[in-house]
Design a protein that fits this description.
153 residues, 43% helix, 5 helices, 18% strand, five-stranded mixed sheet, alpha/beta
């Protein structure tokens, strides 16, 4: 069982939770990776009995560079702004966004709507004091990595 409780000693309050996962291609191995992500989220949720899993959002075969081209991501944001849940859990920053500005703008809008994002691999909770600083650094690294992969070498 995964135990990420030590990443931040968050209060153990009840949370309405949404999971978000994404793979960038529709190749069979990527679709298997998406199923694995969902199983990973289910296992993670067992470490947080106070989480009430409201919804699971999965984008298949879609790049993370443009949020508006990810239908499940956009549906998740709409549901968040309507108050359907108060916590989005995503495995890592690169699953959420690969553009630093988009990532920060989205998490700020969510925070203003009282919705937190937990980036599990990085241990970043967006409502924490240092959350935005850590997210900015990590999002910049993700974006730089993506640009390096795209440049001819």
């Amino acid at each position: 069982m995964i135990n990420y409780n030590s990443t931040k000693n968050k209060s153990r309050q009840c949370r309405k939770v949404a999971f978000y996962g994404r793979v960038s291609t529709e190749h069979e191995e990527q679709l298997n990776a998406l199923r694995n992500q969902m199983q990973w989220y289910e296992e993670l949720s067992r470490s947080y009995p106070e989480w009430d899993i409201i919804e699971r959002y999965m984008d298949e075969g879609i790049t993370g560079t443009q949020a508006n081209k990810r239908p499940e991501f956009m549906r998740m944001l709409d549901d968040a702004f309507r108050g359907k849940f108060d916590l989005i859990v995503t495995r890592e920053v690169s699953r959420f966004a690969r553009n630093t500005i988009d990532c920060l703008e989205m998490t700020r809008k969510l925070r203003n709507s009282k919705v937190e994002v937990f980036f599990v691999q990085e241990g970043i909770w967006t409502m924490d004091n240092e959350g935005e600083m850590n997210l900015t650094i990590r999002a910049m690294m993700v974006e730089a990595q993506m640009k390096n992969m795209q440049s001819p070498g």
